[in-house]
Amino acid sequence: MMRFTKLLLGVLLCSGFSLNAQDFIFLKDGSRVLASIIDVGKTEITYSEYGNPSREVLFIAKSDVRTLLYENGTLINMETGKAAKDESFKRNIMSFHLADLVVSNFTMSYEHILASGKMGIQIPFAFGYGSGPEVNQLKNKFYTGIYLNFYPTGQGRVRYVLGPALRFGNANTEIHHTSWTEKTTTFYTKFMINNGLVISPIEAFSLSVVGSLGVVYKDKVSPGNDEVETTGAFTFMLSYRF
């Protein structure tokens, strides 16, 4: 009777609205099932195969399942019945910063996500080219740095990211003297706070929008003096996870 009830529930759910959630069922034999989970009962898990147009309702014994990973990033340990750390996600990310092209920078970055899923360490590499617009009176030649990215909700399809960013590099600039202008190269350092949103439409790829505010220190950009001023940045990234 219970099995029939679950089957009827699954049929009604499938016919009433679309089951588009991409969940994962990790089995104790090491394999995984790409699924849309319908119900978790006392002894069985009811699901349909993700992407299967027939949406056939299937069953699997809970005793054969190690963990369930839901679309929102929630990971359930079947042995304890409690949320567990999501260690199934891939922890290396390569990103191309598309928005940096607007200011004539070709920028890539590498990020490593720690096992907890709540923190990542990101290192950018940017090369300036052409005669793009200045930022803080600087035309970047090269910069790198280190960002600490915190993910309060962990790793899921949609995740919020924030954290401090330290960036340093060389740039072309102009020093304005009383009656003449000197073109030179200066070293600069930026300290900013990043805030952004990451969306992963599929497991391996993600899109990110990040805004930053902070200060920039410029070495000797006026006669005999260094300079500190406020700064900001915006980037749109396309990322590959591996």
Entry keywords:
14 strands; eight-stranded antiparallel beta barrel; 2 domains; 6% helix; 60% strand; six-stranded antiparallel beta sheet; 1 helix; 242 residues; mainly beta; elongated; SH3 type barrels; Porin
How would you portray this structure in words?
This protein has 242 residues and is mainly β. The chain has 2 domains: 2-77, Roll (SH3 type barrels); 92-241, Porin (Beta Barrel), CATH 2.40.160. 6% of the residues lie in helices and 60% in strands. It has 1 helix and 14 strands. Strands 7-8-9-10-11-12-13-14 form an 8-stranded antiparallel beta barrel. Strands 4-3-2-1-5-6 form a 6-stranded antiparallel β-sheet, with helices on one face. Strand 10 and strand 11 (158-176) form a beta hairpin. The longest helix is centred in the N-terminal third of the chain and has 15 residues, at 2-16. The radius of gyration is 25 Å and the shape is elongated. The model is unreliable at 4-9 and 11-19 (pLDDT under 50).
**Secondary structure tally: strands:** 14
Strand order of the largest sheet: 7-8-9-10-11-12-13-14
> How does the major sheet shape up?
8 strands, antiparallel, barrel
Number of helices: 1
CATH class of the largest domain: Mainly Beta
* Count of folded domains: 2
Output the radius of gyration.
25 Å
Which residues form runs of ≥5 with pLDDT under 50? 4-9, 11-19
What's the order of the H and E elements?
HEEEEEEEEEEEEEE
Q: Classify the beta-strand content into a percent band.
A: over 45%
Q: Any idea what the CATH architecture of the largest domain is? A: Beta Barrel
CATH-assigned fold name of the largest domain = Porin
